[in-house]
Amino acid sequence: xxxxxxxxxxxxxxxxxxxxxxxxxxxxxxxxxxxxxxxxxxxxxxxxxxxxxxxxxxxxxxxxxxxxxxxxxxxxxxxxxxxxxxxxxxxxxxxxxxxxxxxxxxxxxxxxxxxxxxxxxxxxxxxxxxxxxxxxxxxxxxxxxxxxxxxxxxxxxxxxxxxxxxxxxxxxxxxxxxxxxxxxxxxxxxxxxxxxxxxxxxxxxxxxxxxxxxxxxxxxxxxxxxxxxx
Length: 230
Fold this sequence. Notes:
It is a single chain. The chain has helices at about 1-30, 30-35, 45-55, 65-70, 95-110, 115-125, 130-150, 160-175, 175-180, 185-200, 225; strands spanning about 75, 85-90. It is mainly α. The chain has one domain (about 1-215). It has a two-stranded antiparallel sheet with strand order 1-2. A hairpin with a 6-residue loop joins strand 1 and strand 2 (about 85-90). Helix 1 (about 1-30) packs across helix 3, helix 5 (about 95-110) crosses helix 7 (about 130-150) and helix 8 (about 160-175) crosses helix 10 (about 185-200). It is globular. It starts with a helix and ends with a helix.
């Protein structure tokens, strides 16, 4: 019986590696998914999930619509004789996508140099709640993903060390298939991806930006100034 369970576990692990490899290959091969990896805290699983579950970003007119879809907006309960506002999630929204963004926020919180991590530590010191802090950071990450997927960007001029390491890990996760298909060495394939990222879009949400609907962008402002991205 134990040997049978071990065989099932080995098979499940093989399946997990297989599907993660296919997901990494899909992200590397799709520029729209690859550009999501620029967000700190987002790797191939979260990028793929955003592409798969969000789909056409145009159906979310404002970032708060995407936040509500994921279930990262503040909970609200008006049952009984009282009303209650507080917390996030409350059991609504897309639980799988929400869990991935929360995991990404937890990873960001461990990055001492990231502006969003610094904002999160200040919030935790003020509120005294790790869960509240992580969910607030995940909400900002969802907002950043909305701006990115809507095509509001600034030009990337240099691939930083963190993004370079992340791309290398995704290439490793994808296995040899993308290299064989491209006909390039690993180094050459990395450079090809870097060039794709440089000619695409860069997004880094200003953590001090207030979360509210915005009017139509003014012609005199750059996308980075208008939407709090840099």
